[in-house]
Write a structure and sequence with these properties.
The structure is a single chain. By secondary structure, the protein is mostly helical. Helices cover about 65% and strands about 0% of the residues. The protein is built from 16 helices and no strands. It is elongated. This is HEAT repeat-containing protein. InterPro entries: ARM-like, ARM-type_fold.
Length: about 280
């Protein structure tokens, strides 16, 4: 029998009693697709358990219980923020913050400030949850918190924070630009490319040299090509064409990469032609 045919109680029993995490998310996803007051109430009860594993199960089910707009959203957020006031287990806090991030479109200033207060928590799991919770929130305190996280020792936290600053909000000020600029030479490639993209979107001319160097080194991916298009700078066309000519007959290069490069050339050519005719 497929797990989709199991009762809610059987799925919850498996989640609580399984000794491994192998099927955990499969079972949670089935429950998330079953929106009911009864399941909501059972999940809330799980969040009150003395066992952190069981608290996490309830938190994770509620995080995406139903399609957007989620029918129990306000009640779920109240549960989460009540828990954030008292929870101390780092693993549970990470789940809570991730879950807030899945439902952060209309948080109040008080709620955002509460989330940002976890910047003082040095636990790596908590920082990971915190950066996710703040993605897409255009709020001064949230942005200040992401700026601090963008220089974190953990590469994936820096990456997500830089992504949040560069691509998930439209706000453009010197603090955001300088935080992005600090990451353009990051040793973590994805973080560096997210910073380049964010600066290109904000028309920061300093990034042109960084993009040019990346194109010359030919060690880049699709995100750099997207940044090139954002700049609408025709001076990149010769480098792009040279890169394409270098690899066009190399069968060891994935054809999709060649196609992406050609598409970038075509799009940039079209954009710059439109600009010149204005």
């Amino acid at each position: 029998m497929s797990r989709k045919d199991w009762t809610d109680d059987k799925l919850l029993f498996r989640l609580i009693n399984n000794k491994t995490e192998k099927t955990r998310w499969d079972n949670i996803q089935v429950l998330r697709d079953r929106v009911s007051q009864e399941l909501f109430s059972k999940s809330v009860e799980l969040t009150k358990s003395d066992n952190p594993k069981i608290r996490k199960i309830g938190i994770d089910i509620l995080a995406q219980l139903g399609e957007t707009p989620r029918p129990f959203l306000n009640d779920t957020l109240k549960v989460y923020f009540d828990l954030l006031d008292v929870e101390t287990n780092p693993d549970v806090l990470m789940s809570l913050l991730y879950s807030v991030g899945h439902n952060n479109d209309n948080l109040s200033k008080k709620q955002i400030d509460k989330v940002c207060s976890f910047i003082s928590n040095e636990n790596d799991w908590v920082k990971e949850g915190l950066v996710f919770a703040l993605l897409g929130i255009d709020n001064t305190n949230a942005i200040k918190t992401l700026i601090k996280l963008s220089s974190d020792k953990l590469s994936h936290v820096r990456d997500w924070a830089t992504f949040g600053l560069g691509s998930q909000i439209e706000r453009n000020n010197k603090y955001i630009r300088e935080a992005l600029w600090e990451r353009v030479n990051d040793k973590h490639q994805e973080t560096k490319l997210e910073a380049i993209m964010g600066l290109a979107k904000r028309n920061d001319k300093r990034v042109n040299k960084i993009i040019r160097d990346e194109l010359i080194n030919q060690e880049h991916g699709i995100l750099l090509l997207e940044a090139v298009i954002e700049t609408q700078n025709k001076e990149f066309l010769p480098l792009l064409r040279n890169n394409l000519n270098t690899i066009i007959d190399d069968n060891s290069i994935d054809f999709r990469w060649k196609k992406d490069l050609q598409n970038c050339i075509d799009e940039l050519t079209k954009l710059t032609s439109v600009i010149e005719t204005r």
